[in-house]
Write a structure and sequence with these properties.
Length: about 190
């Protein structure tokens, strides 16, 4: 069944339809929320729970003429925006960089791990330096895997605006991460 037909079934009270939507999207949403919410697993799990609770409580809020995936990520995106506002008010937000990366195993190449850690730290710093509109377009495309058309629907923008934001974000990240490109460092 399509996601859209499953949502129609959920609105009729069919538990199996909800279970299927949960199986399809709980993992990807957890990953999305982890990336968007400073790698805070507990908060990400709470957000996954909250979004599925919204689906159970108000399945009729989904417009079956829309694509379910873009609607779901629109809801998720709005939840993150609300959390950013809440955190901004509190003024004690996390930077998303905890600086502690576990080593995968004691026999691995330490130099590679250090370089990977440095890259991740620089990548996160570069992402933090992007403004929110470019950051969210980049994350939806390259981390959540949405198409340009889906991103345009989620963010309520034209395809051209999405492409422009993706181009700007990629250009900025490429420049700020050029030290990690072995081709450029010869």
């Amino acid at each position: 069944m399509t996601d859209e037909s499953l949502m129609i079934s959920i609105s009729k009270g069919e538990k199996r339809a909800f279970d299927e939507i949960y199986v399809r999207y709980s993992g990807p949403l957890l990953g999305y929320f982890m990336r968007m919410l400073w790698r805070d697993r507990e908060k990400a799990e709470d957000f996954v729970h909250d979004i599925f609770a919204k689906i159970i409580r108000k399945p009729e809020s989904f417009d079956p003429t829309r694509k379910f995936k873009t609607w779901l990520y629109s809801v998720a995106n709005n939840m993150c925006k609300n959390e950013y506002k809440k955190q901004e008010v509190r003024k004690n937000t996390s930077t998303g960089l905890d600086g502690h990366y576990a080593l995968s195993d004691s026999n691995s190449n330490v130099l590679e791990e250090v370089q990977d850690m440095q890259f991740r730290e620089q990548f996160e710093e570069s992402m933090d330096a992007l403004d929110d509109k470019h950051k969210e377009a980049f994350r939806l495309r390259h981390i959540s895997g949405l198409s340009i058309k889906e991103i345009a629907e989620v963010l309520e923008l034209s395809d051209g605006t999405v492409k422009s934001r993706l181009f700007y974000a990629a250009k900025y990240l490429a420049e700020s991460l050029k030290d990690f490109n072995p081709v450029l460092n010869r």
